[in-house]
UniProtKB/TrEMBL annotation:
Compartment list: Cell membrane; Membrane
Root EC class: translocase
Record organism: Thermofilum pendens (strain DSM 2475 / Hrk 5)
Name used for this protein in its record: Potassium-transporting ATPase ATP-binding subunit
GO molecular function, one term: ATP binding
NCBIfam families: ATPase_P-type, kdpB
Length: 701
């Protein structure tokens, strides 16, 4: 989100004026529709009065202006909140400006417009210049300012093979970039598409509150009509315009006028966190979330496990384990696979060049979420190649592979989760017990063991260590304080899972989890009456994301995951689920605070306007004027003015939120009653008295 959103008042005022359409108000804001009907009635009555008497009553004209202002202030608050939501798209669009790009053509640099670039073009971007389009760095090092997208103030280092985003600026350095995005299909284009297609149907509680407020308004209409005809029958209150004023003063116009803005503001606050909510219902549900189901990797840990040790089994040596793990990782471009090769190199346990070359051309066994192992398969049986004795094996594993090569026999080298690899090897009880002891010892340290096997025999264990994310313990503490139950899903063995969960303060976890386990856990929690949030990024996460009350997909995830979720985190940071829950609860707190304030306002306004309307018809009851207001006319005008101006006065609170502090519902209720309830009672009395004094000073009323 841009740091400062400048409100385009011309656009906002025009939008707010268009929303005065009775048809729009009837469907979106029934309370304001009733107020507008009152204004229409007052206008007709004042017009007829003017034709009959030669001039309309000044009080009636003033009340007409105030009623119209009340409705307009409501549509204005909604238009301002919607403008802030659209500002994100406008800001992203501004980043797509057409700039001069330094395109490489042979040995020459040719300046072209960035809109003319196509995938495959290579451009040079120097210090102070903007990256013209999404691409990858071919050479050079630069520090790039991405704050306009991520909010991070520090420039990000970009080197060979790193991705750069069009519209970001090079702060220092010089890079060559290969363009990969076509016009209209850049990262910023995708963000704008996500935001523009996100819809905000009314939230469930918003609908229920609207129904409640509508019911109250209908009740007040009946009460007002009854009082009007009762007093008129005894010779008092003959002015129907005052009946309209009394009705509007009683109706919960404050919350009715601000309710749409509160809902839009919730979505906008998430947008400011680079989270796109596809619907307001998801934001509302976030406030009720009491269970979060998430993966360990990427959420609790950094997700970049590194090899730290090789542990041999039986008569094998550390070198044997390193050589086997190295060969199994030749086709593995993950951080994990690369770290295994780097650890083997650092220890001097590199396989013979012949075996490395053979592994590069061998069939790769890709990792699968069900088999949970990967490696290589040497298929020498197709081309028997006698071992000429030119290679001296440096390890037992190398010797066995080279001998198999000499005989033309197939050899498989794999690494993977211990339980998965144990299913494909043949080991006696003693070896399995030894593996179990290693797994338990490694797991207690919060590390992850990978079992390495040569054909059907276990060779040893590779120990992987993943770092706990910085600040994750504090975020877990905050969620627990909010009463949220955390369920960690991991493919690790139970010992490792328990150690990591204990370290970060999580009680509930699912170890050795398969893809369907996340969905099953979501369904179990929902059956127990919980509101569940799920984080995911893979296609296998899609069912759980769709089933969850709040599904948060990472922007770096698959299309299936993003389509199934009702929120998308553009920064792909799973720990931001804390902020999602907080924004949801801020929304609830704000709605509760303004509702409390509005209802207490209505009670207070009743004691200011009703006595003065009665006193206007029956002067002998002027003793009811306990506030010492100047006259019935000034009191009615002061009350109606306050009723109107309180709406724009509370717009900043509706947009910013009433704030959220971790507390029980009883504590939140007590806080709302004390701050907004008491404030809702006191404020009208003080404000109406001051407005009355001002009206008298100005000679009005």
């Amino acid at each position: 989100m841009p740091p400062d959103v400048k409100i385009q008042w011309t656009s906002v005022l025009w939008e707010s004026a268009k929303k005065l359409n009775p048809a729009y108000l009837f469907g979106e804001n029934p309370i304001m529709f009733v107020v507008e009907l009152g204004a229409f009635f007052t206008a007709v009555y004042a017009t007829l009065e003017g034709l009959r008497e030669g001039a309309a009553s000044a009080l009636h004209v003033q009340l007409l202006v105030i009623l119209l202002a009340t409705v307009w202030f409501s549509t204005l608050s909604e238009s301002i909140s919607e403008h802030q939501a659209r500002a994100r798209v406008d800001y992203l669009r501004s980043l797509e400006k057409d700039v001069v790009a330094h395109k490489l053509v042979g040995d020459r640099v040719v300046d072209v417009r960035s809109s003319e670039l196509v995938p495959g073009d290579v451009v040079v971007v120097g210090e102070g210049e903007y990256v013209p389009r999404d691409g990858y760095v071919l050479e050079g090092i630069a520090y790039v300012d991405e704050s306009m997208l991520t909010g991070e103030s520090e420039p990000v280092e970009k080197k060979k093979d790193d991705r750069v985003i069009g519209g970001t600026r090079v702060v220092r350095g010089r890079i060559r970039v290969e363009i990969v995005a076509e016009p209209g299909k850049s990262y910023i284009d995708r963000l704008m598409a996500l935001i523009q297609t996100a819809k905000r149907p009314k939230m469930k509680s918003e609908v229920m509150l609207s129904i409640l407020l509508g019911g109250l308004s209908l009740t007040f209409l009946v009460i007002t009509a009854s009082l009007y005809f009762a007093l008129r029958s005894v010779g008092g209150w003959a002015d129907p315009v005052l009946a309209v004023a009394f009705l509007v003063a009683l109706m919960p116009t404050t919350i009715g006028g601000l309710l749409p803005a509160i809902g839009v503001a919730g979505v906008t606050r998430l947008m400011a966190e680079n989270i796109v909510a596809k619907s307001g219902k998801a934001v509302e549900a976030a406030g009720d979330v009491d269970v979060i189901v998430f993966d360990k990797t990427g959420t609790i840990t950094e997700g970049s496990r590194s090899a730290v040790a090789f542990i041999p089994l039986k008569n094998y040596t550390e070198r044997d384990v390193a050589v086997a793990a190295y060969l199994a990782s030749v086709g593995d471009r993950t951080h994990e696979g690369i770290s295994i090769i780097e650890l083997a190199k650092s220890k001097g346990y590199v396989p013979e060049d012949l075996l490395v070359n053979e592994a590069l051309s061998a069939r790769k066994i890709s990792f699968d979420v069900r088999t949970r192992f990967s490696g290589v398969e040497f298929s020498w049986y197709r081309r028997k190649s006698p071992f000429a004795g030119t290679v001296t094996p440096l390890s037992e594993v190398s010797r066995r592979i080279l001998e198999a090569r000499e005989r033309g026999e197939r050899v498989t080298v794999i690494k993977g989760s211990v339980d998965s690899v144990l299913e494909v090897v043949r080991e006696d009880r003693a070896t399995r017990e030894a593996i179990a002891r290693i797994v338990e010892e490694v797991g207690r340290r919060g590390e992850t063991p990978l079992l390495v096997a040569l054909n059907d025999e276990a060779v040893g264990v590779v120990v992987l260590k993943d770092r706990i994310k910085e600040g994750v313990k504090e975020k877990i503490r905050r969620l627990k304080k909010m009463g949220v139950k955390l369920v960690m899903i991991t493919g690790d063995n139970p010992v490792t899972a328990e150690a990591i969960a204990r370290e970060v303060g999580i009680k509930h976890y699912v170890a050795r989890a398969k893809p369907e386990d996340k969905l099953r856990r979501v369904e179990e929690e929902q059956l127990e009456g919980h509101v569940v949030a799920v984080l995911g990024d893979g296609t296998n996460d899609a069912p759980a994301l769709a089933k969850a009350d709040v599904g948060i997909a990472m922007n770096s995830g698959t299309r299936a995951a993003k389509e199934a979720a009702n929120m998308i985190d553009l920064d792909s940071d799973p720990t931001k689920v804390v902020r999602v829950v907080e924004v949801g609860r801020e929304l609830q707190t704000t709605r509760g605070a303004i509702t409390t304030f509005s209802i207490m306002n209505d009670i207070a306004k009743y004691f200011t306007i009703f006595p003065m309307i009665v006193a206007r018809s029956f002067p002998q009851l002027s003793w009811l004027n306990f506030m010492g207001l100047h006259s019935p006319e000034s009191a009615i005008l002061a009350t109606m003015i306050f009723n109107a101006v309180i709406i724009p006065s509370l717009i900043p609170l509706a947009l910013r939120g009433a704030g959220f502090k971790v507390a029980s519902y009883s504590e939140l209720l007590a806080r709302n009653l004390l701050v907004y309830g008491l404030g809702g009672v006191v404020t009208p009395f003080v404000a109406i008295k001051l407005i009355d004094v001002l009206l008298v000073y100005l000679g009005v009323g």
